[in-house]
Write a structure and sequence with these properties.
Blueprint lengths: L13 H10 L2 E6 L4 E6 L1 E2 L5 E7 L12 E13 L12 E15 L2 H16 L10 H5 L3 E7 L2 E7 L6 H14 L2 H13 L9
Antiparallel strand pairs: 1-2, 1-5, 3-4, 4-7, 5-6, 6-7, 6-8
Helix pairs in contact: 4-5
Length: about 200
């Protein structure tokens, strides 16, 4: 499932893709015939090479997660960009956004690995682990899920952040996003500022 990425929106920095996967963990998992699509949190391991998650046993997608291949789609911040914000005129409207596609083989986790996965999820989002539950209660929950791992073999990142515009237009878009100031507007503006076009270049 290739991702269309024009050269000016491509990032050569693997750390940037890894950062987006960690900051925007609620992903879309695509695999199998049809295809099957599930929306779920996926946790990237410490070395940035594997994703772990779980689906309900009743989810038909589970049958494709043991030895099959899957793509996890991570959507970062996104925002509408009005053509009236550009110095040049006429211009067309567009959308700025960041997205990562992580693709690779999958496998189902064994019981101990599945339990460790649930414990990790709890610690990540609740700050406490399995020890806070009655003995055996969390392990009983494993009967209703399939936990799995996706080994990342291919990672495509697209950061469409007005890199194809002039430095002046890039800065105007940042300013207008801040003025409109929705949550996503501010997040996109922050990514644009951080990667920069103050010197006329986009840092990849």
């Amino acid at each position: 499932m290739p991702l269309y990425v024009p050269p000016h929106f491509r990032s050569a920095d693997p750390a940037l893709a890894e950062r987006l996967m960690r900051e925007y963990e609620f992903a879309t998992l695509v695999c199998g015939d049809g295809p099957w699509i599930t929306h779920l949190p996926l946790v990237l391991d410490a070395d940035g090479r594997r994703l772990r998650g779980h689906v309900a046993k009743a989810n038909g997608q589970a049958s494709f997660l043991d030895g099959g291949r899957a793509t996890a789609v991570f959507n970062g911040p996104h925002a509408y960009v009005s053509p009236t914000w550009y110095e040049e005129s006429p211009a067309v409207p567009t959308w700025n956004y960041a997205v990562v596609h992580a693709t690779g083989p999958t496998r189902l986790l064994d019981t101990d690995e599945s339990f460790a996965h649930l414990d990790e999820v709890l610690r990540r989002y609740e700050g406490v682990g399995a020890e806070t539950y009655p003995d055996g209660w969390l392990r009983d929950k494993l009967g209703g899920i399939f936990a799995f791992e996706l080994e990342i073999e291919e990672c495509a990142a697209k950061f469409k952040m007005s890199q194809n515009k002039s430095t002046t237009d890039h800065q105007r878009v940042v300013r207008m996003l801040k003025e409109r100031s929705t949550t996503d507007d501010l997040a996109v503006a922050a990514w644009m500022e951080e990667r920069g076009k103050e010197d006329g270049t986009w840092r990849t």
